[in-house]
Amino acid sequence: MSLVDIETISRAELEQDPFGHVVIPRSFVTDAVAEKLRGEFSDDGFEESERTDLNRSDKQYRMFNRSLVTAGAVDEDQVRTLPANWQQLVADVVSRPYREALSALTGVDLERCLVEARMTRYARGCWIEPHTDRPDKAVTHLFYFNDGWDPQWSGDLRLLRSADMADCAKRVAPTTGTSVVLVRSDRSWHGVPPVADTCPVDRRALLVHFVRP
């Protein structure tokens, strides 16, 4: 049985300001399911990923990642160590009903796209600069798993009108059950400012990308 609320995704309405996106406040079938996934978000198995000024040809960032699905293939070694609810969530995001719901929501044909999925943690000082995703990343869906988020902690998702982090159209706190769908375009600027040193917890999320082969 799916944990992701496919019907809610299907009923959502895409916004176009500042680019194609939708914020879904309740992405799972029940709040209890969302809370269970939050409580079972393991901090094990993550690797630090960082790109700084050494190569300005691509976006700069610092975060911790745990890859679960690569090029459409589930990493069984990683997934089998997860709790049962997380195993089901991985099954959900590679399922056809989920793919069809996102395709209907965004108007993007995802039939031939390959799914990539990874758990991410932003510790203090982690960030990702304003960027548009690679052209082959057709649609991204971000699921969040934090029990509340103080705006003073920074580290929220910023939907931007340009490559300037201050040119912000919308801020999305990474709270449990909230998810955000982003449609890639040349104006789909977004980023995450550094998590504040005063933040007592890591920012936790699951990122799902639909990538054109």
Notes on the structure:
- This protein is an alpha+beta fold.
- The protein has one domain (6-211): Jelly Rolls, CATH 2.60.120.
- It has helices at residues 6-11, 31-39, 76-79, 84-93, 96-106; strands at 21-24, 47-51, 61-70, 73-74, 114-122, 127-131, 137-144, 157-160, 168-172, 179-183, 190-192, 203-211.
- The protein is globular.
- Keywords: Dioxygenase, Iron, Metal-binding, Oxidoreductase, Vitamin C.
- InterPro entries: Oxoglu/Fe-dep_dioxygenase_dom, Pro_4_hyd_alph, Pro_4_hyd_alph_FE2OG_OXY, uS12_prolyl_hydroxylase.
- Pfam families: 2OG-FeII_Oxy_3.
SSE layout and pairings?
Layout: H1 6-11, E1 21-24, H2 31-39, E2 47-51, E3 61-70, E4 73-74, H3 76-79, H4 84-93, H5 96-106, E5 114-122, E6 127-131, E7 137-144, E8 157-160, E9 168-172, E10 179-183, E11 190-192, E12 203-211
Antiparallel strand pairs: 1-10, 2-3, 3-4, 3-5, 3-6, 5-12, 6-11, 7-10, 7-12, 8-9, 8-11
